Amino acid sequence: LQTILPDIQLNLRRGIAELGWGHPDPALLPAADLARAAELAIRRDGWRALAYGAEQGPGPLIELLRVWLGQREGALPAAEQILVTGGVSQALDLLCTLLARPGDVVLVESPVYHLALRIFGDHGLELVPTPADAEGLRMDALADILPRLRAAGRQVCFLYTVPTFCNPTGASLASGRRSELARFALEHDLVVVEDDVYRDLWYDAPALPPLQSLAPAAVIRLGSFSKILAPGLRLGWLVAKPEIVQRCIGCGMLDSGGGVNHFTAHVVAAYLEMGLLAGHIDRLRASYRGRRDALLAGLAQYLPGDCRWQRPAGGFFAWIELPEGHDSARLLPAAEAAGVSYVPGTRFCARYGGERHLRLAFSLLSEGELATGAKRLGAVLAYSRLQKTEG
Amino acid sequence: LQTILPDIQLNLRRGIAELGWGHPDPALLPAADLARAAELAIRRDGWRALAYGAEQGPGPLIELLRVWLGQREGALPAAEQILVTGGVSQALDLLCTLLARPGDVVLVESPVYHLALRIFGDHGLELVPTPADAEGLRMDALADILPRLRAAGRQVCFLYTVPTFCNPTGASLASGRRSELARFALEHDLVVVEDDVYRDLWYDAPALPPLQSLAPAAVIRLGSFSKILAPGLRLGWLVAKPEIVQRCIGCGMLDSGGGVNHFTAHVVAAYLEMGLLAGHIDRLRASYRGRRDALLAGLAQYLPGDCRWQRPAGGFFAWIELPEGHDSARLLPAAEAAGVSYVPGTRFCARYGGERHLRLAFSLLSEGELATGAKRLGAVLAYSRLQKTEG
Description:
Chain A is α/β, with parallel strands linked by helices. Helix content of chain A is 43%, strand content 15%. The first copy, chain A, has helices at residues 31-45, 59-73, 87-99, 114-122, 139-151, 175-187, 211-214, 242-249, 252-257, 262-273, 277-302, 328-337, 367-390, and strands at residues 17-18, 82-85, 105-110, 126-133, 136-137, 156-161, 192-195, 219-224, 236-239, 308-309, 317-321, 340-341, 343-344, 357-361. Chain A has an 8-stranded mixed beta sheet, with helices on both faces. In chain A, strand 3, helix 4 (114-122) and strand 4 form a beta-alpha-beta unit. The first copy, chain A, is globular. The termini of chain A are far apart. Chains A and B meet through helix 1, helix 2, helix 3, helix 4 and helix 9 of A and helix 1, helix 2, helix 3, helix 4 and helix 9 of B.
């Protein structure tokens, strides 16, 4: 079928090493196996895969998720702690509708996943950044900000954080800070939304236990099949205390339409039953590890010596700090003209900050393309430096 | 897999003729054809069915929808007027987030689809009922209510109506009133959300043209594959002026996750391309027509002579008015004890009304079961009458 409308979000420009897109390499999407899962789901479940689904998600998928999370994380959540979602985006949207009201404050790690910020904005929430550093969210900042907001009479609906292989920084909340944040949240009755989509994509050592495991009563944890299986499925899960899950299950949208994405949920349940996910994640990890290493090698080889970055131990991203005087947003046109793209750091920061940072994704491109991208970025930065010196 | 959690919403109780559920008969869900469509979608589209989808929905599905709507309704909408949705429930939720703020008034036809009312409630909207009669929304009531609300300084976000084969009444907005409402909406700058999910399920004569065709600038029309294909797909569409579609496309949730339900959208696009939908709807129409007729025959035979109902010309429902002194909610336990269930009328009315009404669905049960249900309802009403006379 001929159409001028796009089918997918990804839009690659010829001649540009696209390090901006935090999308998976299409070659890593297991189309053939998902076709088999779809066939199995419909053949076996028949009309049950096509009727209005249970609000919580299909019971069989919830049971499979329990077992999966138990195996991966060592603790089996109770069935009443799980809700099947349409991925983190839909889950965040639902939480904003049910747990927040326009004018509420949402505390957001800064820098953090930029498109979550846009979801919060659509709900009329005020974004208050809480700075993070190489060890994740800064507890001193949180301990300063929250009481001041509450003293000023502000309603704080929740804190949003990506404590494991953060988008965009790749950083993880350090072990001590995890305990501190868990204690703080419980003591201060602060709901924490833990965006945990990169947990399985570790490249050096397994991720630290979820923040939620340290404060189950305070934390709503969001998982997704987008990074470990396929984003177009629009399927994920939420783990929270039963009261939160019940509030979601009882909402009008799920009462009306049934569980989100019921048909796809049956397909994914079949995929899990076929026992394919663990092996697929192993392959993803090997592939992404190689890409990460290729990017890091390229950065070390080609970037000016006064650029700084951390080695991301998991996830999709590297976060580069440019030397004083650079502005990553202003540099972007020159970079794209030189054949490399990225996302400027300001996009990930509520209110302020990020001007000297940029995010590079190593999930989409091959090792060779990543090296090419690093080389071009290095050249652009060197040229920009030269201009500044001459100017 | 053994589980105690439900897979689907439908929960049939032994011995009860379940006329409460507005769900399709499972036998009418085309599982085998959808299995073929899923296979075709993945085989042909491969990773494109699994990547982050375009925010508007997959271009190929939008083109197919344009052609489909053009063939069925005689007017081809422009591509920029269409958004693929996760069904009416998700579309309503999105519109509440983007077009309304808590405290706004939503005008709702009364009686109307009860679960839409719950979605509006989750968004903190105030429901103001606008009465409908056998010819649909009463324009005299609307012309009285809207100016008074605005004079009182209230923000009215939109009017929600089901003008074609309404849930729960089966009534359609009469032709003259359609023109009047279209003119009124344009003159008063009132956004109208037209829930149009039953359009194709007519049993006597094709439905009147959509309200939207008379006032394209004022009306947001919601369609769905839930009634004409399968509700578990969670897929539908929205037709509106391009500015509204752009506001939806530009929201954070779709920017973040890509189009809702991208994988399923590819499956449904394949189903449409296989050319199966028109024939399937013909079969649904024949089947539901027979059920409607069986229910109406049963009602005529068994219900006391002072019960009243309209002949539904389409959709899933009949709306019964009981004689003075009856209360359908209070009667329900006795009805279920006698082996028949329904939804009490108050559920469909914001604020007031519906006490003497009840909704019967003829979509789920066989003709024989519908006749049995009508017989049991008649017996319960006769018994209740006897008690009242004696009491």
